[in-house]
Design goal:
It is built from 2 helices and 3 strands. The chain has 82 residues and is an alpha+beta fold.
């Protein structure tokens, strides 16, 4: 994914535009399935067979795929990377 700074996105936010210029990253996300009281970016995820849109915060950004996989193994987090 391309990390963004806020819900306004790179079209309307300079910090988001800077992150977009750095390119795609592997990120650990905290996804909120219920709407919160602050503006957050949204993403589409699959829970079981259901497609859900949820707000998210970026918890950690990894340098590459190998770092993400190592972190997931050490933290007992099951991830799937395409």
């Amino acid at each position: 994914m391309i990390p963004i700074h806020c819900a306004r996105g790179p079209e309307r936010c300079e910090k988001c535009k800077e992150l977009e210029m750095k390119g795609k990253k592997f990120c650990l996300l905290n996804v909120f399935l219920n709407a919160g009281k602050i503006a957050r970016p949204m993403t589409e995820i699959y829970v079981g067979c259901r497609r859900i849109f949820g707000e998210y915060d970026i918890i950690k950004i990894f340098k590459d795929k190998e770092e993400a996989l190592t972190y997931s193994r050490n933290s007992n987090i099951d991830i799937q990377i395409d």
